[in-house]
From TrEMBL:
Protein name (record): Breast carcinoma-amplified sequence 3
Signal peptide: none
Domain BCAS3 WD40 stretches: 30-167
Taxonomic classification: Eukaryota, Metazoa, Chordata, Craniata, Vertebrata
Domain of life: Eukaryota
Length: 167
């Protein structure tokens, strides 16, 4: 049986263009620009029952794999079994950065306006949802539960990376 990383490597070999392996491509495949692995509360099956139903093979939460292409990105859930499942795909231009937003710490004074939409994915694309901001100056928040964009945040300067925490 393959180890966790061997399963991920096998998955990537299926996705990565054949040009990297030195063999002539039978068909044109997409070019991968960046890859990121994430461990987020999204894949904590004790907090997210939908993922528990999808990945009920064990107690280990699945690894999240984000792949950035020249025209968009994908988010994959890879459980211990190695059977990857696509969680999100966006093909509307290059993506500079993306992160799964952790659920916030809730207190008596604060409420979570997005609790029904979580888990959320923050995406910095070349052109934001408004289409009027300069390149990479907008972060769109997508619900991985529904697939819809729930908020767009505009910045005055370009975004180079996204960082987030429970606060």
């Amino acid at each position: 049986e393959q180890s966790y990383m061997e399963s991920v490597v096998t998955f990537l070999q299926d996705v990565v263009p054949q040009a990297y392996s030195g063999t002539p491509p039978a068909e044109e495949k997409e070019k991968i620009i960046w890859v990121r692995f994430e461990n987020a509360d999204l894949n904590d099956t004790s907090r997210n029952m939908e993922f528990h139903e999808i990945h009920s093979t064990g107690n280990e939460p699945p690894l999240l794999l984000m792949i950035g292409y020249s025209d968009g990105m994908q988010v994959w859930s890879i459980p211990i079994s190695g059977e990857a499942q696509e969680l999100f795909s966006d093909r509307h231009g290059p993506v500079r950065a993306a992160r799964i937003l952790p659920a916030p710490q809730i207190s008596a004074q604060k409420c979570d306006n997005f609790s029904e939409k979580r888990p959320l994915l923050g995406v910095c694309k070349s052109i934001g949802s408004s289409g009027t901001s300069p390149p990479y100056c907008c972060v769109d928040l997508y619900s991985l539960r529904t697939g819809e964009m729930v908020k767009s945040i505009q910045f005055k300067t370009p975004i180079y990376d996204l960082h987030c925490n429970k606060r």
